[in-house]
Fold:
Amino acid sequence: MNIAIILASGMGKRMGANKNKVFLELGGKPLIFYTIDNFEKSEDIDEIVIVAKKNEITDMQEIVDEFGFEKVSHIIAGGKERQNSGHNGVKCVHDNYDKSGTVVLFHNGANPFVSEQEIKCVADAAHKSGAAVVAHPTKDTIRKVDENNISKGVIDRSELWNMQTPQAIQLELALSAFDGADEKDFLGTDDVSLVEELGEDVIIVETSDNNFKVTTPIDLALAEVILSQK
Structure:
């Protein structure tokens, strides 16, 4: 079984909007519609859990009802940090579904263009190895800079990848990773970093350029262009 945990309880301060960016309009629909729709249509996803701000659960339910999403089984409240929200999602899945052979896929609510193939590949990799994440190879030149803004040379980018979502983890491993991070007061930069903190490997699956997180107004404009070409 594969269960998507869509994380939609962020603040979105860099967007500069007066509301959660997942509710911003994209092609005449809320941005979160496209995110949910990708997992709704995926043959590799069995159920969807949405993690929302407590005061936005009703708004999220209205979107689910309006567009007839049938795989959304739970809409739950998020936590203070993204990691807390992910943990809430894991505990929801752990409490309500078969624990054997289940993989959870953490996905940002503001990543509207993940493909069916990307969902399948990262889920399959997690079933085989325990944890996997989609990512882009870094294209820019990356320099290390000291506290005085003096360049200390170029870092070899052949070993650098920009992480995206979905990030897929076997359910029991995910619960151990999030519980362990809580116990050690460890705050990771993403979901699979908690798995690495346990000493476990994470498989990298290359994703397309279209699978990016809408963070700034420029990203939203780019999303409109991509949507117009679909």
